[in-house]
Every structure is written in structure tokens, then in C-alpha cells.
Protein: Adenosine 5'-phosphosulfate reductase
Amino acid sequence: MTTTTHQAPARGEEELRELAAAGARELGAELSAEGIVPVDGEADHIAAIRWVAENFPSARIAVACSMADAVLPALVADQVPGVDVLFLETGYHFPETQGTKEAVKFMLDVNVVDVLPKLTVAEQDEQHGKDLFSTDPTACCRMRKVEPLADALKDYDVWFTGVRRDESPTRTNAPMVAFDQTHKIVKVNPMVRWSLDELTEYSNTHGLPVNPLLSDGYLSIGCAPCTRRVAPGEDPRAGRWSGTDKIECGIHL
Structure:
């Protein structure tokens, strides 16, 4: 696990709320018609990342990455070299996801931080029953994703996510910048207006690491036991927790 030591002091909640509101005003609730169309000579995502770089010490900035692709870490690292990239090491990832993480560590100027749950898979099986993901996926996500991330984000004032509005109905109105009520820090979604095709094109054009599962029908990649291929025409997240009414792990709700 890669770790990092933060030297910059944390800002108070009120100051972070004010910064988030200022960022929303500066960037605008609605910028361009599409995520990669320039606005006043600068694309939406670049403007959002630049705003963070100018308003926050680099040691207080984090990027969340599932290792489906490396577009977001690459974009942020262009303006914040050595930025912390948080990877939720659940213990259930596909080998392809682990391979993508290693490629990101090797190819990009980032610091990959493995965010670990309190319990190993074996300890969770012993305490909560084997394969909790099949009997209570919400509890499994909470212990292996939601709670570990919440603990990790206490070290930061702002975090970037790769949330896009086209991913699911629950993300249709996701803002570009807002105060995160759950974690009490600023949350920035610079690629919120991108489509999957735009993301794929950008990744290919710039030769970035990409999870090979994306080209094998896995349009939204999570833990192996809870992810299946998506059929043509299906919602990109239809392969997550298939057969249940669950569509989010809980991080972005």
C-alpha cells in the first residue's frame, strides 16, 4: 500500500462550504453543451481542475479512481503532479483491475493509495457469514467501500470523482462542484458532462491505461462477484448487482 503524509492544515467546514459555493459560481451550473467543448477557450474539465489547483494545497487534494480507466487521474496530474489517487482495495477486484492499477502507478505522475477496509475478506466471512456480497450487498459495500473511503477522505479538503451524468438515473443531475454533505469536503466532478464514447476516445488518443474489461462488455466495473457484462442497449450500470434493485454502492448517494 502506498501512503502519504499531509502537512497542510485542514480547513474548517464553513470555509469549505464557501469555497464550494464560489467554485459553483465561477464554473457555472451549466457550462458547455458537452464536456469537452471549450468554454471561453478552456474546456469544462480543465477549468474545474484548474480551479481546484488554484484554491487548494496539493496535499489536501484526492482523486477517487476505480481503475476502469485512467482519464481522470491523468487530467488531474497534469495540473497537480503527484496527486493522491485513492483506490478502494475491497479484496474482490478482477485481476484486470489490479493490472490497470499497476499500469497507472507506472505511467502517471500520481501517488496511488490503497484504501483498505477494517476487515479482510476472511475476517468478514467469519464475522458476517461467507460471501456477504450475495446475502447483503449493501452491507458489504458499506464495510468494504463506503466506510473506508469516509475514513480516508478525512485527510483531504477536496476530492475529484469520475461521476458522469450519462451513467445512471441517480447521476443525471450531478453538479460539477458542490459541498459534499456526507464527507464535509468539496466534491468536484470534472467529467460530469462527458459521455462514455468521449471518455474512451480521449483515453485511446492519449494512450492511457485502460481496463481491458471495458472492451469485453463490462461497461461499469466494480467487484468481480457483483459485476457482469452488459448486453447491447442496456444501461451501462445494468451489470452492477444484477438481479437486485441496487444500482449504487452508496458512495455517491
